[in-house]
Amino acid sequence: MSDLLVRNANLPDGRNGIDILVRQGRIERIDHHIPFNDIPVLDAHGNLLTAPFVDAHFHMDAVLSYGLPRVNQSGTLLEGIALWGELKPHLTQEALIARAMQYCDWAVAKGLLAIRSHVDICDDRLLAVEALLEVKRQVAPYLDLQLVAFPQDGLLRSKTAWTNLQRAMAMGVDVVGGIPHFERTMADGAESIRLLCEFAAERGLRVDMHCDESDDPLSRHIETLAFHTNRLGLYGRVAGSHLTSMHSMDNYYVSKLLPLIREAGVAAIANPLINITLQGRHDTYPKRRGMTRVPEMIAAGIDVAFGHDCVMDPWYSLGSGDMLEVAHMGLHVAQMTGQDAMRQCFDAITTTPARILGLDQYGLAPGCHADFVILDATDPIEALRLRPVRLYVIRRGKIISETPKPLAKLNLAGRITEVNFRK
Ligand code: FE2
Fold it and tell me: What pLDDT is recorded for position 166?
């Protein structure tokens, strides 16, 4: 828990030239020109200072396993699930922990200090659960890792998933997961939602389900999720991840659905990098983009976050833990290129997922944890445009990562100049 005075920062809300006084790892004061002599000073030089990036949807048990035991040739969701099934029997706890720890290092360097990761509970050994609980313990000083018990093979479709899910929750997993569109029938999907929501309600837990990750416009499990959330009083504690079928739904039906989701306080988590590659795979032309209806949901008052979902795993061969890359893709796919819309995309990787995860004392206000990222950019829109280096990543007032500013030095027909892509 450190003391620090950050000078001359620009904040995401548009305030410029701001000082932030940190005492004992918490923000004590935010103002113009805070006088202080006896504590370390960090000059932000007019760069953007934001609360850390938050990833609301990830799979840390699969991260960095690309090519094990083979590459996904078709690039489809179903081959990815099959490939993960081939890999599962060969997983070891040591390898799971090593890959996850390596990814957490990448995340910190990118200013990503809170991750909600699903963990597959369909392997009866629950190796991945044990491994990620250990990772959670090890990274706790610098990264908040929240775990979701995820029945990848279907809660009712897999013989042991329901028992394993309860075992995982007893071991210390935080959030109840599900995958209703992967159950054998629509009825089973609905039944899995009822069981999981009741389980969460009885224990005061949060819920985050993979929901309607499909191009089928009749995949309407989000309606059932909103219904049980409302019925059980789980307002603000439930998220639907992906929701890609909404892209293909009938507009009239969606006009009824959005107010139901809003009424229930169900949040949406879109995963633009993965869903722009996975959805519309069965289309010829025109090809659907497949991502859920992000701007329409935001306009309806629904919390929408962007998640990374996958980095170098059976489903996605790219990625580096950079949430600005995620939001950059999200704003393109959703055509959210207006100034306000781009700022909403920045919120979708910072404040909105922090709210969905229920992070304590997150934000830029007195009393909040002194967790910041200072970027080589002036404001959120420039940050989205450049996806620049994270000059400083600060946790509880202490610098935990530094990246030097890149500068290209050009020699053009005798004219020596430097380029950093900032106006
Ligand atoms: Fe996922």
Answer: 98
Cis peptide before 286 (omega within 30 of 0): yes
Residues 6 or more apart in contact with residue 154 via CB below 8 angstroms: 161, 179, 182, 183, 184, 188, 192
Q: Is 191 a catalytic residue?
A: no
- From the centroid of its chain, how far is CA 218? 26
Whether the pTM exceeds 0.70: the reply is yes
Please tell me the distance between residue 264's alpha carbon and the centre of ligand 1 in angstroms.
22
Whether the Cβ atoms of residue 69 and residue 381 lie closer than 8 Å to each other: no
Below-50 pLDDT ranges, the chain: none
**How far is the centre of ligand 1, averaged over its atoms, from the C-alpha of 118 (Å)?**
7
How many angstroms is it from 56 CA to the middle of ligand 1? 10
Task: Mention every residue, 6+ apart, whose C-beta is less than 8 A from residue 281.
Answer: 75, 76, 77, 215
For position 37, what pLDDT does the model report? Answer: 83
Q: How many domains are there within the chain?
A: 2
Strand order across the beta sheet in which 112-120 lies: 53-58, 112-120, 144-150, 175-178, 206-211, 238-242, 266-270, 304-306
Residue (of 180, 136, 187, 186) closest to 161 by Cα position: 180
Q: In the numeric block, which tokens belong to residue 62? A: 């699969």
The whole-number pLDDT of residue 317 equals 92
Which residue of the set 213, 263, 325, 418 is catalytic? 213
- Asked which of 341, 357, 373 is the last residue of a domain, the reply is 357
Three-state DSSP at 159 gives: coil
Centre of ligand 1 from the C-alpha of residue 308, in Å: 9
Same domain, 47 and 190: no
Amino acid 89: pLDDT: 87
Residue 211 Cα to ligand 1 middle (Å): 9
* Single residue among 311, 339, 357 that ends a domain in this structure: 357
